Each structure stands twice: as structure tokens, then as C-alpha cells.
């Protein structure tokens, strides 16, 4: 055999040995940590595939919604989320007088000026806080046992759209869909206190 073929054959065999003997894998470069992170329970109990990772594969635990209504029969009724500690208006349209739909700026002002149930530190909730109220296992995604005054309409969030600051996020309590809309459009308002 010619000497350059011998060297080439040895080179090829070495390369094959390296790739066949050492399993290839991607390096773990993840910087994410999900410890202490809870997500709302979807209450999905049936699995639809054999693949692990569907909502039904996880226990509900601390992510199961838990609420307490204070003063449920009277004006000044509030609903406290026992998981987050946030206090919500139970009947924002009637008891709290927030009434008809408003533009985003008027919704922010209405919450900041609200004096209700002995508190004056109300604010417009952010999109994550509104989404935390949704329960996707029922036809209407807001639980009316704890929020009887919230309709199936869209509700303003304080969160503005990063791509267009003249828009803000709206969460529909009928469909569970969130989207961003021009802040001069009218949607409903609920207020929250506590949290960040």
C-alpha cells in the first residue's frame, strides 16, 4: 500500500472511533430555575398522549386556586387570593362603582383614586395578575363563586405593550384570551391591592 493511503486509513479509523465510542450530547447550559415557581392549575385530569408533560401529569398542590371572600353580603366585599395574598374587588361594577367600560387611562385613574373597603392603595392589576384568576377547566374561565361581579368581558391590565406603548393588555374573562389593544378603546376595570 502506498504510504499516504496508510495514513489516511488510520486517520479515518481514528475519527470513526471517536464518534462511535463517545456519545454525542448537547452541553447543559440552562440558566433557568423553576424552584418556588407556581403556575395556575388548569384542572386537566385526562391525558391525551402517552408522552409525559401534559397538565394532567402534574399534581395541583399549591397552584390550585384558593380564595376567601370578606363581607360577601354587603358593600365593601373583597376576595383575597390565598396563594398570592392579593386582594381583589368582588363586585367592581356595582359595589365599587367602576360601572361602565373605560379607556385605559381612565381605568388606571379609577383604581388609583378608589377608596373602598377601608383601603386607598388600589391599583390596576398587571396582565400576569389578571391571568392568575383564570381557570381553564370550566366554560367561563372566571370563577363566579368568588368573583360574582366580574363579567365575561375584557378587563384592562396595567401592562403596556412593549412593541407599542400606545396599547395595553386586555384579558377576557369569557374566553381566557389576552391581547393588546389601543389604550383609547373602552374595556372594563377591576382593581387589586397588595403584591409588587
Q: Would you kindly provide a written description of the structure presented here, covering whatever features stand out?
A:
- It is a single chain.
- By secondary structure, the protein is of the alpha+beta class.
- A hairpin with a 5-residue loop joins strand 5 and strand 6 (178-182).
- Residues 21-37 have low confidence and may be disordered.
- It has helices at 3-21, 104-112, 127-131; strands at residues 67-70, 78-81, 87-89, 154-160, 167-172, 178-182, 192-193.
- The termini are far apart.
- 23% of the residues are buried.
- The protein has a four-stranded antiparallel sheet with strand order 1-2-3-7, with no helix packed on it. A three-stranded antiparallel sheet has the order 4-5-6.
- The protein has a domain at 64-193: Mannose-Binding Protein A, Chain A, CATH 3.10.100.
- It is built from three helices and seven strands.
What string gives the helices and strands in order? HEEEHHEEEE
Helix share, percent: 10-25%
Q: CATH class of the domain at 64-193, anyone?
A: Alpha Beta
How far is it from the N-terminal to the C-terminal residue, by CA?
77 Å
Radius of gyration: 26 Å
CATH architecture of the domain at 64-193: Roll
| Count of strand segments | 7
Amino acid at each position: 500500500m502506498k504510504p499516504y493511503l496508510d495514513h489516511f486509513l488510520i486517520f479515518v479509523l481514528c475519527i470513526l472511533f471517536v464518534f462511535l465510542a463517545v456519545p454525542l450530547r448537547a452541553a447543559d447550559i440552562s440558566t433557568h430555575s423553576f424552584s418556588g415557581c407556581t403556575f395556575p392549575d388548569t384542572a386537566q385530569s385526562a391525558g391525551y398522549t402517552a408522552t409525559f408533560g401534559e397538565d394532567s401529569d402534574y399534581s395541583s398542590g399549591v397552584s390550585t386556586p384558593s380564595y376567601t371572600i370578606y363581607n360577601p353580603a354587603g358593600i365593601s366585599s373583597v376576595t383575597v387570593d390565598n396563594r398570592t395574598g392579593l386582594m381583589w374587588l368582588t363586585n367592581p361594577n356595582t359595589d365599587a362603582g367602576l360601572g361602565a367600560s373605560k379607556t385605559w387611562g381612565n381605568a388606571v385613574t379609577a383604581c388609583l383614586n378608589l377608596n373602598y373597603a377601608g383601603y386607598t392603595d388600589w391599583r390596576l392589576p398587571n396582565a400576569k395578575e389578571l391571568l392568575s384568576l383564570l381557570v381553564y377547566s370550566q366554560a367561563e374561565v372566571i370563577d363566579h363563586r368568588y368573583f360574582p361581579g366580574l363579567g365575561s368581558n375584557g378587563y384592562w391590565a396595567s401592562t403596556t405593550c412593549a412593541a407599542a406603548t400606545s396599547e395595553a393588555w386586555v384579558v377576557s374573562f369569557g374566553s381566557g384570551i389576552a391581547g393588546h389593544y389601543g389604550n383609547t378603546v373602552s374595556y372594563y376595570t377591576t382593581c387589586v391591592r397588595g403584591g409588587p
